[in-house]
UniProtKB/TrEMBL annotation:
<dbReference type="Pfam" id="PF00561">
    <property type="entry name" value="Abhydrolase_1"/>
</dbReference>
<dbReference type="InterPro" id="IPR006311">
    <property type="entry name" value="TAT_signal"/>
</dbReference>
<feature type="domain" description="AB hydrolase-1">
    <location>
        <begin position="81"/>
        <end position="317"/>
    </location>
</feature>
<keyword id="KW-0378">Hydrolase</keyword>
<dbReference type="GO" id="GO:0016787">
    <property type="term" value="F:hydrolase activity"/>
</dbReference>
<dbReference type="InterPro" id="IPR000073">
    <property type="entry name" value="AB_hydrolase_1"/>
</dbReference>
<dbReference type="InterPro" id="IPR050471">
    <property type="entry name" value="AB_hydrolase"/>
</dbReference>
<dbReference type="InterPro" id="IPR000639">
    <property type="entry name" value="Epox_hydrolase-like"/>
</dbReference>
<dbReference type="InterPro" id="IPR029058">
    <property type="entry name" value="AB_hydrolase_fold"/>
</dbReference>
<protein>
    <submittedName>
        <fullName>Alpha/beta hydrolase</fullName>
    </submittedName>
</protein>
<comment type="similarity">
    <text>Belongs to the AB hydrolase superfamily. Bacterial non-heme haloperoxidase / perhydrolase family.</text>
</comment>
<feature type="region of interest" description="Disordered">
    <location>
        <begin position="38"/>
        <end position="57"/>
    </location>
</feature>
């Protein structure tokens, strides 16, 4: 039996457990809604419509099966022009909840999936690489027959979106936003001297194998949200939410993904971009330093705009969510 051919009882049991975990996650994630951002929103988002979705609109919670037998979970909120979100490592679609709520409440249809091996999607032993990630995204857009979408990728998700454009083009895409994204290339090489030494990623792999649960506390407690900087005020809720999402991912899948996000060269993919592209990056990003990432990508992508968040860490989806929400909404409306 392959890793993807599981008995129905196992799949149903796993979905039941995850559904219960999702219910518990609501309480854990409440602090993210208003306690983590140091910025006040320019204006309160419009209240979501109290009326139920009309017939024919995709369900808010659903799954589909890829051509190689991997079950992918996705959420589909709101109606209107489509915005598709790809999440970072080792998280899942829930990491986009603030941005999805804001845009959906302001007239956009927001779609986000759990990458294979992450969150509520199944955990294949093989295929944990950028080509498969991009092809899964392509199959999701094909399944939902998405047109004129705005693709938004955070961190590893930025790599997924970039490889999607490189492999599948922009026939379904109207614009792209890369947020704290890993392209063009994270690891240091002879042709990428500004990258991070491979020893950094070896250390993450060693930490994952030695004590994954502790690693997934140490990362959000320290550099991810800039909580290791003087004067920072860590949010236990944000840290716990990050840990919970990370632990839902498969052990092998999150291990393999380290190589995928750090060693994949997206240079040629970025050169294929032919739609307006917004690149947002914090200049105090300790996870994906801006010079070898956001600034380098902006030089490769035609018709791109680089927006630098001064003093911002990697995890700006939470620490600067009000500013990010406003910037993404403005770009979506443009």
């Amino acid at each position: 039996m392959s890793s993807n051919d599981r008995p129905d009882t196992v799949d149903e049991g796993r979905r039941s457990v995850l559904a219960g975990g999702t219910a518990l996650a609501v309480a854990a994630l409440l602090p993210l809604a208003g306690c983590t951002s140091s910025e006040a929103p320019d204006a309160a988002p419009a209240a979501p419509s109290p009326t139920p979705p009309s017939a024919g609109i995709a369900q808010a919670m659903s799954t589909f099966t890829t051509k190689d037998g991997v079950e992918i979970y996705y959420k589909d909120w709101g109606t209107g022009p489509v915005v598709v979100f790809s999440h970072g490592w080792p998280l899942n679609a829930d990491s986009w909840e603030s941005q999805m709520y804001h845009l959906a409440a302001n007239g956009f249809r927001c779609i986000a999936h759990d990458r294979r091996g992450h969150g509520r999607s199944s955990q294949p032993w093989d295929g944990n690489d950028m080509d498969h990630y991009a092809d899964d995204l392509a199959q999701l857009l094909d399944k939902l027959d998405v047109k004129d979408a705005m693709l938004v990728g955070f961190s590893t998700g930025g790599g997924e979106v970039t490889r999607y454009v490189g492999r599948h083009g922009t026939k379904r895409v109207k614009k792209v936003a890369l947020v704290s994204a890993v392209p063009p290339l994270m690891v240091k090489t002879d042709t990428n001297p500004g990258g991070l030494p491979v020893s950094v990623f070896d250390g993450i792999r060693q930490g994952l194998l030695a004590n994954r649960a502790q690693l997934f506390l140490d990362i959000p407690s320290g550099p991810f949200f800039g909580y290791n900087r003087p004067g920072a005020t860590p949010s236990p809720g944000v840290i716990n939410a990050w840990w919970m999402q990370g632990m839902l991912g498969g052990h092998k899948n999150t291990y393999d993904s380290i190589k995928a996000f750090s060693e994949t060269d997206f240079t040629e993919d970025l050169k294929r971009f032919d739609v307006p592209t917004l690149i947002i990056h914090g200049d105090d990003d300790q996870i994906v330093p801006i010079d070898a990432a956001g600034r380098a990508s902006a030089k490769l992508v035609k018709d791109s705009k680089l927006v630098v968040y001064e003093g911002a860490p990697h995890g700006i989806t939470d620490t600067h969510k009000d500013r990010l929400n406003a910037d993404l909404l403005a770009f979506a409306r443009s």
